[in-house]
Amino acid sequence: MFERYAVFYTCPTDSDLARFAAQWLGWDSASGAKTPRFTTAGLDVAEITQNPHKYGFHGTIKAPFRLAEGMRQQDLEAGFDAVCSTVQIAPLPQLHLASLGRFLALVPKGDTNLLQGLAAQVVQDLDVFRAPLSAAEIERRAPHRLTPQQRGYLDKWGYPHVLDAFRFHMTLTDRLDKPTAAQASAILEQALTGIAMPAQIDALTLMGQAADGQFHQIRRHRINGS
């Protein structure tokens, strides 16, 4: 049994983007294995991807959570399958590299209302499986830095960036200083040239976090209408 669970969007494993990202982050969550690292002169990719390395390449739909008392992984899997049968495919418009605060990620550009709706449904429908946050988990979210709305979401849903505060992104680096971010951005832009980006979310992935902190794919499920 895993220590925490999450619902992510992950790319098909046979896609060029998934293969590149696994090398960039050094972890393939689908196979649960480390991968040969992308190397480039003058930049230690492993050094700038320590946090996203644990998760693998993904977009968060429902943030990591502990199972509620009395719930088993098989219960969560059944709930996940049920949600996947009811949510609708959502477009993922113009995925592109951008700076979010101090880290780099792929983000959509354009109307993301359907994507936001998909994420909201998953967050709400699966919340019965989530254990309440501990005091330590709340503190790690730096609640003093959250808006009143975000703090309310943290208390109710276990994560501050949900519902209308949700912003889809697929993280590629840790927080970086400006020179390193500029260098990494240039390298990523070149490496991503010619790689097809996903145009829609037509599947969701149930993930589990092992004791060593690494996330593993439990199952990837195509969603309603796909």
From TrEMBL:
It holds the Pfam family DUF1045. InterPro entries: DUF1045. This is Phosphonate metabolism protein.
